[in-house]
Amino acid sequence: MNPILRLDKVCKRFGGVIAADDVTFSVMPGEIHGLIGPNGAGKSTLMNLISGIYIPDSGSIFLDEKDISNVPSHMRARMGIGRTFQTPRFLQRSSIRDNLLLGTDLANQMGYLKSYFGKKGSNFEEELDRLMKYLDFTFDWEEDINGLAYGQRKQLEIVRSMLTHPKIMLVDEPAAGLNNKEIDDVMALLNFAAKQFGIGVLLIEHSMDMIMNICEDIVVICFGKVIAMGGPSKISCDEAVIEAYLGRDLDASNS
């Protein structure tokens, strides 16, 4: 099986700052893949490179083994890249229905992409009802999106991304600002996307409990460079990872 997403020696500089330094890793279909590192490590830059907000200075990015390194961001979305953000992004002064319908509108444009519900196009209410079973709240369709609590908007952003029928979702800090019950619901929703429909998930998250419980593989970056890759058990005891997070001088500690 080929990876759904592959980065090959991707580099990006902003002046003298190296945000991505020869980054190589891949995400398989149906896999939840963690992307972690200290603040300022370059995680969001990689998300922006994958989604097309930035173009790499060198190296290549592949979606389903097609080189998308220079493809515009709106075309990448149509090709099957879904994304959520640290702070939810919705149409302001618009209803919940209108904001969620944006997801099905994008899905309906992708005529070449089979819906993971087995038909071309989308049945909005049927799909939404299926996804909302994993979230513990209801809403009035016509309510303004800003009337929802922050945690609810974060969860609905994941739902909207899934309504686009993506091949891969880039999910940025979904646990931030959520309570424990909401985090459990998000984890169930992401597992549903990956295991039931084969969607690859690239997950940035500072909650190590969430990363260790949901991810099959993890890539760790620091100052734009990959310092470790592997499963949760390997990453949790990796000396380079411990040093990057704790700032510990390994030579001094071992002397």
Properties at a glance:
Rossmann fold; four-stranded antiparallel beta sheet; 10 helices; 10 strands; about 25% strand
Short summary of the structure?
This protein is an alpha/beta fold and 255 residues long. The chain contains 10 helices and 10 strands. The N and C termini lie far apart (46 Å).
Written overview of the protein:
- This protein has 255 residues and is of the alpha/beta class.
- It has one domain (5-231): Rossmann fold, CATH 3.40.50.300.
- It contains 10 helices and 10 strands.
- It has helices at residues 43-51, 73-79, 96-109, 124-132, 150-163, 180-197, 208-214, 232-236, 239-246, 250-254; strands spanning 5-14, 17-27, 32-36, 58-63, 66-67, 81-83, 168-172, 200-204, 217-222, 225-230.
- The strands form 2 sheets. It has a 6-stranded mixed sheet, with helices on both faces.
- Strand 1 (5-14) and strand 2 form a beta hairpin.
- Helix 3 runs parallel beside helix 5 and helix 5 packs parallel to helix 6 (180-197).
- The longest helix has 18 residues, at 180-197.
- The radius of gyration is 18 Å and the shape is globular.
